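User: My instructor asked us to take a sequence, write out its structure as tokens, and then describe one feature of it. I'm not sure where to start. Here is the sequence I was given:
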Amino acid sequence: MIARIDVNKTMLPGLTEGGIGATVDILTPRPLTIGKTYGALSVSGMLAERVHNVRPNVSGLYAWVNPAQTFGMLVAGSYVDMRASGDYARISQWDDADFNVIRGSATAPVATTERLAGPRQASYGTYGGGTKRTFGSIAIQYKPAASLTLSVDGFYTRLDQRIDDSIVNLVFGNTIINPVVDRQGIVTAGTYPGQAFLQSPAVAAVLAGRTVAQPQKLSVIRARDRLAESYDVGVNALWRPAATITVTADLSRGRAKGDKRFDPYVLIGNYAANDVSYALAHASPQIATSDTMFTDPARIRFGYAGNWGQTVDDRLTEAQLVGRWHHGTSGLTGISLGADYQDCSKGAGQRQFTVRSL
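Assistant: Let's start with the prediction itself. The structure tokens for your sequence are:
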């Protein structure tokens, strides 16, 4: 789909040599440049192990040129369908902070305040989804005279994407029972108490007057749909009235749209009824809890539902006229004069809301 990429150092004086500023010209193949009729087709498949199927990857190109090589047409296209899924478990928050440390049992607890480095939140999530990419382009060239070449180019591309997430977060709180702490003050094992332990009379008495953040279980469900489309249509004239003179005129119109207006999420949280145990074994965190998530609706304390949607719509019209004189290989080898016009508009929209209940 791409014949050549030219990268030119920008001439803006505000950027010093070696800066990242540059102009990039992506040159697509043209039928009269190819100069012959030919076609190419590529078909392949990608094995998605988790979803147990093969996803297609197809691309092709066909160019036709008349015998006189004064007229040619080239069409190209591609289609890719990808699927992916996975899961993860990780400590998503680690704090160096003051903890309420309880040593002993629920009937004979001793409470102190100690500064420790320990986990505050663990996450387990699963995700799945896919992406489809469609691309098509056409180039038509006509050469009415040896010194004049007219071209019309256009392309269209579309991206469809959907990703679903389901995440369970365990928020441990700021109270820990019988922690095992190494010499650096890092918690390598311990138990974060649930409501059953915290509400026992002896524990409630030793924690009176202290700030206690109770462990929570959070469930997050999110679906992310995204649609992106873009197109560009351009006309070009290349005139060589003499061997040392080249005149180029371009006019193009492009548009890019992004639609992610529906990005819903739901979050439900409840207090942990039972304790959550933690241990760092072989540099890998081990988390265990006997709580089921929502068997007791009375423990559900908060919920959110909302949408993080947004849309974008960018448009660009560009015209360019350039004349070049080139001669010799030393000294002054050429002069370029030209004019450029651009009209760019950018649009964005937000479709966001949050509803809290409980």
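For the description part of your assignment, you could build on this observation: The chain is about 5% helix and 70% strand. Try explaining in your own words what that tells you about the chain.
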